[in-house]
Write a structure and sequence with these properties.
Layout (H helix, E strand, L loop, with lengths): L22 E4 L2 E4 L4 E2 L1 E6 L13 E6 L29 E2 L2 H10 L5 E6 L8 H13 L3 E6 L5 H7 L5 E5 L5 H7 L4 H11 L4 E8 L7 H12 L9 E5 L14 H11 L6 E4 L2
Parallel strand pairs: 5-7, 7-8, 8-9, 9-10, 10-11, 11-12
Antiparallel strand pairs: 1-2, 3-6, 4-5
Helix pairs in contact: 1-2, 6-7
Bound molecules: iron/sulfur cluster (SF4).
Length: about 280
């Protein structure tokens, strides 16, 4: 059976998981095996997502599951994304139904919580849980945020759009080489996803500046120009963040802070709101 959630189009044998470790073939049906299986839950400042221009100063109950459809070698959440442990950690998770999660989010209201953020691992590979929970959250008067790599078919986005109020989407670089060879992803799928997402909700973008991969002025100029040409593109916030050696990418130093600031100035040639992170 084929999974059509992302560009990989995994052909999954009965009882087996796909590449992301989160979707399985069960009795001839492809389903999210990580549905409601939480690995992390925390009340975070919304700026940590990062979202700078969506309910600033508020807090949001943030949850994650396990698995990922990319293979970023510098992943900061490898314990729940694509390490050996992450891809076999289902038994270590705890099940939380959509109803229970919304109840929990409402309980946190007195601590400033405005809703739910689906984050930490890649939420799109378990989009059914996001959809079902976010729908209930809206009915309860909460808002919904998704932090994502944007690597999913537009049909998946369409199912989520009525329920999601804001997204932070990674636009990790602006070359096919980097997406294909380093991240094992698809730049085109992410660009198509962003182009549609900005039409229905508040979107902020994040680019991690990795030395030697995506750190030239030309690349950031091209990236920011493309963003500026989207719907209301000049007002889309862009976060340029500093890389630190992590996980399988320990062969280079952290990004030079002065470089991050210089690239932010380049992006400001095209965009109104450019933020630097981890500097
Ligand atoms: S979502 Fe997972 S199972 Fe589906 S195509 Fe992508 S990697 Fe494969």
């Amino acid at each position: 059976m084929k999974c059509d959630v992302c560009f990989r189009r995994c052909d999954i044998d009965e009882g087996r998981p796909g590449f992301c470790g989160s979707r399985i073939n069960e009795n001839g049906i492809i389903k999210a095996d990580n549905y409601g299986r939480l690995t992390a839950i925390a009340l975070d400042p919304i700026e940590k997502k990062p979202l700078k221009r969506f309910h600033p100063g508020s807090a949001i109950l943030s949850v994650g599951s396990y698995g990922c459809n990319l293979r970023c070698p510098f992943c900061q959440n490898s314990d729940i994304s694509w390490s050996d442990y992450a891809l076999s950690c289902k038994d270590q998770t705890r099940y939380c139904s959509p109803e229970d999660l919304v109840r929990l989010a409402l309980n946190y209201r007195k601590q400033g919580n405005i809703g739910l953020a689906f984050t930490y691992n890649e939420p799109l590979i378990g989009y059914e849980y996001v959809r079902d929970t976010a729908k209930l959250a809206h009915e309860a008067g909460l808002v919904n945020v998704m932090v994502t790599n944007g690597t999913a078919d537009l049909a998946v986005l369409k199912e989520l759009q009525p329920h999601i109020d804001a997204m932070n989407i990674d636009l990790k670089g602006f070359t096919d080489r980097y997406y294909r060879d380093v991240l094992k992803g698809s730049r085109k799928m992410v660009m198509d996803f962003i182009e549609e997402a900005v039409k229905s909700c508040h979107v902020e973008l994040t680019t991690l500046i990795v030395p030697g991969e995506n750190d030239t002025e030309d690349e950031i100029r091209e990236l920011s120009l493309w963003v500026s040409q989207l719907e209301n593109g000049k007002d889309i916030p862009l976060h340029l963040t500093r890389f630190f050696p992590r996980f399988h990418m320990q062969d280079r130093n952290a990004t030079d802070i002065a470089l991050v600031y210089r690239l932010a100035d380049v992006a400001r040639e095209n965009l109104r709101y450019v933020y630097t992170g981890n500097c």
